[in-house]
What we know:
The chain is α+β, with helices and mostly antiparallel strands. Helices cover 39% and strands 21% of the residues. It is built from twelve helices and 15 strands. The strands form three sheets. Strands 5, 6, 7, 8, 9, 12 and 13 form a seven-stranded antiparallel sheet that branches. Strands 4-15-14-10-11 form a five-stranded antiparallel sheet. α6 runs antiparallel to α7 (182-198).
Amino acid sequence: MESLTIGAFAKASRLSPKALRLYDELGLLTPARVDPLTGYRHYAPAQLERARLVAWLRRLGMPLARIREVCALDAPAAAREVRAYWARAEAAHDALGDLAAFLVDHLSRKDSAVNDANHPLELRYAALSDAGLVREGNQDTAYAGARLLAVADGFGGEGAPAGAAAVDALRELETGAASGGLLDVLQDALDRADETVRGFAESGTTLTALLWTGERLALVHIGDSRAYLLREGELFRITHDHTMVQSMVDEGRLTEAEAASHPQRSLLVRALGAGTRPAGRLPDLRLHDPRPGDRYLLCTDGLSTVVPDDELRRVLASGTGPGAAVRELVGLANAAGGPDNVSCVVADVRERSAAA
């Protein structure tokens, strides 16, 4: 079959002549022949399949450099790469959806910064941090107060002060003196935390916190520390790990079982400080409406990587108070070898007594 002119090929492939010229320059879709006198590009009919694949991948929003890599693969490998790309795109879309929901809730209710309104609910809480049985020092930070619950897992040479600094930046919100809406004060606190942590050379920290606004709990999360909610006997994880391995699970490259034993399971893709947070990607923000009887657990990965979820649920549902619960959880981590620092915060939501 004769070759196709660029116009005919553009029509058949649903790519514009302008796009075809660009793809030729990038080496993505090179013409079969270029007329030496006129410079006109001619394409072989067999190139249509590749051209149509490029068109469809562009409709997915895939960058040209990634398309070039996909087109160089055989069909099964290309299918895996497309699946992985779309999983990342969906994850990014979900994150934006969470932020949109946060904004809608925030604007609908016209939040104050930290509200001391006569709300019928209050928190009963306890925090505990332990070095574990292997590490010489403790780079974790755990904090629990009437308005703030937080854990941080520092890393690097100055990981301990980095984690403490991140929590301290949020502790300033406990005074209730900050002006502006909830989004404003959270953004200011997170900016202070990130700036301070970046001052510790080659160090960084995770941060998972719940801020009590007087009506709701605002969740702030970045890294692989976790937050759980026990409600009516069921345990729910309400954070998503920002790790390379979790990204591979999201993309279908690893199973949950494979991720649990992966040698790089603690490699972070998002954290405060240490250059790990890409520009424009903030910590996850979410609002939670607490109910009487809810129990929240915040913990570093020194707990979650060695104590199974069913054991976490058993301890949290046992009916013991927050103090006894955090001691038992730390004990379970150490009984499993205590390979890392372990920190946790347990907080119960309860109705405020008339005397209070």
